[in-house]
Amino acid sequence: MPIFSAFDGTELAYHEQGTGEPLVVVPGGPMRASAYLGDLGGLGRHRRLVLLDLRGTGDSARPADPATYRCDRQVDDLEALRVHLGLDRMDLLGHSAGGSLAALYAARHPRRLSRLALVTTALRPLGLRASAEDRLAAARLRPEGPGHEEALAALRGWLAGEREYDLDLAPFFYGRWDDAARAHAASEAAQTHDEAAERYFDPAAFDPPATRAALSALTAPVLFLAGELDGGPRPDLARRAARSFPRAEVAVQPGAGHYPWLDDPEWFVRRVTAFLDAPA
């Protein structure tokens, strides 16, 4: 397990899977260890995945200063990883909350990116986030079966802050609620650093007008991949976010939720590799 030193001396770990050109991957959660990503549905057969454990998660050390869990503070961790890997420019993929960190990196270091893939991310740095109505609209797209109305009532309660998130709500985050999805959902609590997650999206981390202005200098191609059934973000929200990037394209994966590499690995890998391997 490789280790490198962050800007403040915190020792951070990353995990490598697959072969080929490196693809640096930022996990979501927020602040969930990278293990939940697996090999992104087989993407490791096409790229060497460099799966970062964000500070305080997985095999990475906890920092002396908890304020450094803030999303914008961790941009320097990504830059330290790029330098450690000896890359002049890197391909970067951010999932969910990790997409916010990846976008902030793109705004601060636009010349250090060759390609950027943002997977099911709403982009808080642009002032965008999924609304309760977005999540309910996505939930209504799902087939009605036994217990559907009860599940919707539970989702409304969670969105209203009347109940904690639990596994009863997990099916709304997956396109297919099968054994693989159940196992994946059950691992979430053990992989997430709760204190760090609370600090990650500190409003002080974001300045949307400044970020939009900085992103205008980004020449790297950008892919927004949204899930048809995902509520956070809905495809329309992903399209709105894409407008802030000079060279962005949007792909909507049919039947997919928040973890599209689990719902249809072949579709996901084919679409992401087509983007990564396309001529500049």
Question: What does it look like?
Answer:
With 280 residues, the chain is α/β, with parallel strands linked by helices. The chain has eleven helices and eight strands. Strand 7, helix 9 and strand 8 form a beta-alpha-beta unit. Helix 1 (75-85) packs across helix 2 (97-108), helix 2 crosses helix 8 and helix 3 (132-140) runs antiparallel to helix 4.
Q: How much is the radius of gyration in Å?
A: 18 Å
Distance linking N and C termini: 32 Å
Low-pLDDT parts are none
The counted number of beta strands is 8
Structural class given helices, strands, pairing? alpha/beta
Mean pLDDT: 95
Brief descriptors of the model:
11 helices; 34% helix; Rossmann fold
In short:
The protein is of the alpha/beta class and 280 residues long. The protein has eleven helices and eight strands. The protein has helices spanning 75-85, 97-108, 132-140, 148-159, 179-186, 188-191, 194-200, 208-215, 235-242, 260-263, 265-277, and strands at 3-5, 11-17, 22-26, 48-52, 90-95, 113-119, 222-227, 248-253.
Question: Could you outline the blueprint of secondary structure elements for this entry?
Answer:
Layout: E1 3-5, E2 11-17, E3 22-26, E4 48-52, H1 75-85, E5 90-95, H2 97-108, E6 113-119, H3 132-140, H4 148-159, H5 179-186, H6 188-191, H7 194-200, H8 208-215, E7 222-227, H9 235-242, E8 248-253, H10 260-263, H11 265-277
Parallel strand pairs: 3-4, 3-5, 5-6, 6-7, 7-8
Antiparallel strand pairs: 1-2, 2-4
